[in-house]
Amino acid sequence: MTSPTLDSPADRPGSGPVWVKSSLSYAFGNCVEVASLPGGQIGVRNSRDPHGGVLSFTPDEWVAFLGGARLGEFDRFASAG
After folding, report:
1. What's the mean pLDDT in 15-40?
2. C-alpha to C-alpha distance for 6 and 52, rounded to whole angstroms
3. What residue segments make up the domains of the chain, in order of their start?
4. pTM for this predicted structure
5. Which residues contact 34 (CB under 8 A, 6 or more apart)?
């Protein structure tokens, strides 16, 4: 299962992943970027460290995470203190 919101690397032979940053990213670049990776994985990286590590998720893991985010299950991690 692929995400309709991400470009597939298979659609761009010879090119690397196309990283997408949220339009809600703060002015200081405090955001993550997401891309479709080869093999159907979903990659997540720090937008301020594009050459750093990449977390990789299966499509099912990514869908589960997005569902939890939409339901507000992770909102408590954004609060200060």
Report:
1. 86
2. 21
3. 9-78
4. 0.72
5. 6, 19, 20, 42, 43, 44
